[in-house]
């Protein structure tokens, strides 16, 4: 039986795309792009962009199985301490074994979701058919004007977004502010790009990457001091008191911060699951050294990464940020 819009919506326990919006609104607060050649999405070509993410997990085997089955990631390496997953030899997700850890509470600072960027809308369509046929629960869908997104949770409560960007020439900017909203997703239009009679998503596309990171923070001003003043990202959605969206090079956002559940949160407790660190790749040595100098001046104490590439700093809530050369 072909996958239909109704099958997709049923995964979120709703019957209309509008009814799925609450999950998308909570997840974000807010033309077919199939490339003619194998090029990275725009989000990965800016001077600063997302790289990898590391998450502390309790049940390693279960989590590896989930990310392989749902997102199609390949297991690139594994030890008794964890596993690294990615695509075509490119590492994206590190799962760190912490079997005795407690699940981090929703009100803690830390991870809101990791956003995996499909290289084009057709790949998002193939993945939608895949999750429908394998009956993977989702928590929301949304058209954000600049992108089309699906939200879900992994087995230990870590948020996931899977999305594709609309052509950036169609994004609307006004004095450095990009238009982003949350409208019902055109599921029919997306499904029209895929074979809805069979699951052809056997592995993640080679150009799947982490497009952005969405964080929970306790205070936006402290977040600004770390991610804007020191890391060098810029605001793309100004004037909000509950959330901020930051980017490099004209992308809609590489890092988002919100206080929807975590306002006033202090340092995260050790010995809990959740986000350990994520990386931002930096395109030139001068920018990387300028970042290091700003973090030092602000008292964030950069430390060299073990492999000798770049440095790591800890944000005000205990999340590691790695700045690494491209």
TrEMBL record:
It comes from the Bacteria. Gene3D superfamilies: 2,3-Dihydroxybiphenyl 1,2-Dioxygenase, domain 1. PROSITE patterns: TAT (PS51318), VOC (PS51819). Keywords: Signal. Residues 1-26 form the signal peptide. Residues 49-165, 209-326 form the VOC domain. It holds the Pfam family Glyoxalase. Transmembrane segments: none annotated. Coiled coil: none annotated. This is VOC family protein. It comes from Endobacterium cereale.
């Amino acid at each position: 039986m072909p996958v239909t819009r109704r099958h997709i919506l049923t995964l979120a326990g709703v019957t209309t795309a509008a009814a799925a919006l609450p999950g998308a609104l909570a997840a974000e607060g807010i033309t077919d792009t199939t490339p003619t050649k194998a090029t990275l999405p725009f989000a990965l070509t800016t001077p600063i962009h997302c790289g990898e993410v590391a998450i502390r997990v309790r049940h390693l085997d279960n989590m590896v199985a989930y990310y392989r089955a749902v997102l199609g990631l390949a297991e690139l390496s594994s030890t008794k301490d964890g596993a690294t997953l990615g695509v075509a030899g490119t590492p994206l997700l590190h799962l760190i074994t912490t079997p005795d850890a407690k699940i981090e509470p929703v009100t803690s600072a830390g991870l809101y979701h990791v956003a995996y960027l499909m290289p084009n809308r057709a790949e998002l369509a193939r993945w939608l058919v895949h999750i429908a046929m394998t009956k993977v629960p989702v928590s929301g869908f949304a058209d954000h004007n600049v992108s089309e997104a699906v939200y879900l949770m992994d087995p230990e409560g870590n948020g996931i977004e899977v999305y594709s960007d609309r052509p950036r020439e169609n994004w609307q900017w006004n004095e450095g502010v990009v238009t982003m909203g949350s409208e019902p997703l055109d599921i029919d239009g997306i499904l029209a790009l895929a074979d809805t009679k069979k699951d052809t998503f056997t592995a993640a596309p080679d150009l799947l990457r982490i497009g952005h990171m969405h964080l929970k923070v306790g205070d936006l001003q402290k977040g600004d001091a770390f991610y804007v003043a020191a890391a060098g990202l810029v605001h793309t959605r100004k004037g909000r008191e509950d959330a901020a969206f930051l980017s490099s090079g004209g992308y809609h956002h590489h890092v988002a911060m919100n206080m929807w559940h975590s306002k006033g949160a202090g340092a995260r407790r050790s010995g809990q699951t959740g986000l350990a660190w994520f990386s931002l790749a930096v395109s030139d040595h001068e920018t990387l050294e300028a970042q290091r100098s700003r973090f030092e001046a602000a008292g964030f104490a950069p430390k060299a990464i073990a492999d000798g590439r770049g440095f790591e700093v800890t944000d005000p809530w205990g999340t590691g940020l790695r700045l690494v050369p491209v």
